[in-house]
Amino acid sequence: MAKRERARTAKRRLQRSLGELARDQQKLSLLEIGGAPNRPIEVISSSVIDVRARSLPCPLCDGESQLEEQTAEKFSGHPLRAAHMRCKRCGIARVLWFRIIGSGAPLQN
Description:
This protein is an alpha+beta fold. The chain has two helices and four strands. It has a four-stranded mixed β-sheet with strand order 1-4-3-2, with helices on one face. Strand 3 (78-87) and strand 4 (93-100) form a beta hairpin.
């Protein structure tokens, strides 16, 4: 006969599993377009970055994200914009990367 698992043990096991799932979802979000400086979201103007960044849901809980700050950065000598976001629901912070290409070039995404 199998020994019944205690409620506290089951709760800890569930919390560990949820933590592992959150870490995996964060890793996957880094592989998406905009998740890393080598895969920026291409935009025509810096004026659309705020709206575009806020329109993307949190990769962990699908909640609404809030823009905390936008900074100018360089990656491999190329100018990029970093949108520092925080989820309003779960509080997870992340950075979305953007490259301004102007109106002359076609967008990749």
